[in-house]
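Worked example 2:
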Amino acid sequence: MEEFLIIEAANGGGNPKVAGLAYGGGKMNLPGWKYPVVVDLAGLEIPEQVPLLANHENKVASRVGMVAAKVVNNTLEIEGDIVAKGDQADDIVAQSKAGADWQLSIGAEVKKSELVKGKRTVNGQEQTGPFYHIGESTLREISVIPVGADGGTKLKVAASFNIGEGPKEIKAEEQIEEQPQKKEKTPVENPKKEAPKPENPEVKKEQPKAPEKTEAAADVALLAIREERERVGKIQAICAGEYADIERQAISAGWSPEETSGKVLKALRENRPAADVNIIVKRRPTGDRLRKNLEAAMCLRVGVHAEDLVASYGEEVVEAGSNDMDMPVKQLLLECLHMEGIEPPRSFGNETIQAAFSTVSLPGILSNVANKKLLDSFQAQPIIATKLCSEGDLSDFKENQRFRLTDVGDLAPIAADGEIKEGGLSEEKATNQLDTYGKKFCLTRKMVIDDDLGAFMKVPTGMGNRAARLIDQLFFRRLLSNPNQSDNNALFSSTHKNLLSGTDSVLAYEGLRLAIKLFLDQVDADGEPISIEPRFLLVPTALKHTAIELTKGATLVISGGGDTPAIRPALNVLADENLEVVSSPYLSNSKYAGNSETAWYLFGNPSQIDTCEIGYLKGKRTPTVEKGDTDFNTLGLWFRVYFDLGVREQDHRGMVKSAGV
């Protein structure tokens, strides 16, 4: 096959047309690749329209046109328009009209490559290794370049689709027409040869045959002259004044234009710059960069949002991952094997799965993806306890003492002598302790073969949801149990002055008013008011709408019984308290000791006063996923998720309970 570029001059003010053979399907020696490269046209993804660039420059000024590409007879052909009007586009058209040679070159992004050491037929040609077989790639651009690098091709350039060599043929014919004037004299020069038979009139009639033989000989000679002139003209055109030595030798030695072209092409390749190649291939990243690309691709595939990944990987990695987000699990295993220099078996089976499971890359990628999916699910689950509780960090799993320093004594007047009296600080003690909660899950052989990454990711998704719920479960279990404090009194008790009971504790106008008063009347260790407003109204689901009516309604009409009902202004003063209603099914759930459908609570803002504390180990506020070992019995790769967590009450003054009965 030949590689060519044809540019047709614009007709009637239209755009110049371009067509050509961009790639012949053979080997390429490319910078950055140890062995030759063969691009498999069967695996080349071709966009509907491809930019036409000048010399592979990714600049606005270098984009000279748009073309359509297609595979024809195991080669890549293009046709389209030169639409730009800049200097580069004008130079390409002008030099082509003047007879300059142009070639085409393609730019492609490699998606899948393989080192072939034996023989393999690609693009209808048997290639002998070692060479890189680019099995899957995407065509990104076509470039017009002065010199190509395909060893088995030639270059043809034309100023238009209908260009030819007519003028040379016309000159040759004019020379042939001038010769017959000399040929007519030939039979008169030797009449004696026919003299012995003058009396025979028939012989005289045959005499013109001799000139015919002479004229035929002259035609043959002129034809040879014309062919020689054409040969010399073609040789001169091929050498184009740049290869004078080859031109002289070709003319004197009788080389054909084809032989001359081969010599010029050889000289051209020997003198070309090393970086001037026929195809630009963007090699896929390796090592840590490839690992991050694969992680991002798998995260996107399982539904993690791209904007959530940018902070971890950066925009470039996320964009690269989006190109591979449809990668099958089998291909992920093969990529991990290639990354670690392991040659995968020819057929995909148990041996391939076991080999991939034994790598460092695959478990690391999957555990990171599972972590991202678990975190995504964890953050999507609403948690009530984080609204009502403060959060703290614990250094170990022992019971941690949580001390608060309480000021004793208000500011006192300074005496005339200027002496400032000494104040005192007392410690109030609370505790918290961590426990570890966890489970394990497995990527099985069946999931890999079925390409069922979704089934695998359902587990960390569910565990992220459960980890968020665990915080609420620990908080409500502790709250409803009403545990004793360091002073041996229950968390909610008359001693702590934070418990409202009896008929006045029902969630209604009067009950809520009394509970707010009880909260506001709380005092510190010094006996002074804490001066903290209640912020949250925590109720079971059965009381949710009652709570909203009490706290959000614009008016509150109250009427009494009998002939003289009590009349109050139509104004809901409770709405001015700015209480946020929080309802939870845990308060009335029968699995929790102390549950009730009538009891409700007031909480202060945990940023102003201690209520309960959610403790984490050294600031780790989310669950962790870790890879485990392969399991011989299940042919699977195990992972585990765990969460270090503890919830304890800290100060009874930040909470009030109403029994509701």
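Residues 151-213 have pLDDT under 50 and may be disordered. The CA atoms of residues 287 and 377 lie 29 Å apart.
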